TrEMBL record:
This is 1,6-anhydro-N-acetylmuramyl-L-alanine amidase AmpD. GO terms for cellular component: cytoplasm. Its main location: cytoplasm. It catalyses: Hydrolyzes the link between N-acetylmuramoyl residues and L-amino acid residues in certain cell-wall glycopeptides. It is found in: Cytoplasm. PANTHER family: 1,6-ANHYDRO-N-ACETYLMURAMYL-L-ALANINE AMIDASE AMPD, N-ACETYLMURAMOYL-L-ALANINE AMIDASE AMID. Its EC number is 3.5.1.28. It comes from Acinetobacter larvae. Its cofactor is Zn(2+). Keywords: Cell wall biogenesis/degradation, Cytoplasm, Hydrolase, Metal-binding, Zinc. SUPFAM superfamilies: N-acetylmuramoyl-L-alanine amidase-like (SSF55846).
């Protein structure tokens, strides 16, 4: 694995990620264990990458007048815990131990309100194009350490479209679950051997 990124988790902070602060979170309900990872995609404006608009959006600092599409999301207060840019850089907006507002109305294996017990990871991307190799590498690396830090997750990793199928389509048909799972599997084997 050339240039495979490495991360660590300390008190809900991802060491190796760039820290941002979103106000769009609250405390998880008492005695709620983290037991799910939700994968999303986002781009602002849709299918355009770079520009820093997602970061501004998650921090409630986006200027809605800059693009016609922004009008359609004006006033929305959302954030994932993590955002992985096309370069593979990982940005953290919300402490993993807090409840980020990423999933909306949702259900996983019959359990509602996925925000209560999940960690949300956004990939900068769209339903219409492939994700970058750097994103797969960073995603598998960060998910592997999250699974270690929160063992209840086990292999519970879902797409937003899996937990909100009528409303949501992301991460979309271009997200290669098999490839991601194979990278993750390799990571976990490695972690077990050295751990
Ligand atoms: Zn989503």
């Amino acid at each position: 694995m050339p240039d495979a990124p490495n991360f660590q988790i300390e008190a809900g902070e991802v060491i190796g990620a760039t820290t941002y602060h979103s106000p769009n979170f609250n405390a998880r309900p008492t005695d709620t264990e983290i037991q799910l990872i939700v994968i999303h995609n986002i781009s602002l404006p849709p299918a355009q990458f770079g520009g820093g608009y997602i970061q501004q959006f998650f921090q409630n600092q986006l200027d809605w007048s800059l693009h016609p599409y922004f009008k359609s999301i004006e006033g929305m207060k959302v954030s994932a815990h993590l955002l992985i840019l096309r370069s593979g850089e990982v940005l953290q907006f919300v402490n993993l131990n807090d409840r980020a507002w990423h999933a909306g109305r949702s259900q996983y294996l019959g359990k509602e309100e996925c925000n209560d017990y999940s960690i949300g990871i956004e990939l900068e991307g769209s339903d219409d194009c492939d994700f970058s190799e750097a994103q797969y590498q960073s995603l598998s690396a960060v998910v592997a350490v999250i699974q270690q830090a929160y063992p209840k997750i086990k292999s519970h990793i879902a797409g937003h479209s899996d937990i909100a199928p009528v409303r949501k389509t992301d991460p979309g048909p271009h997200f290669d679950w098999l490839y991601f799972r194979s990278l993750l599997h390799a990571r976990n084997n490695h972690v077990q051997k050295i751990g």
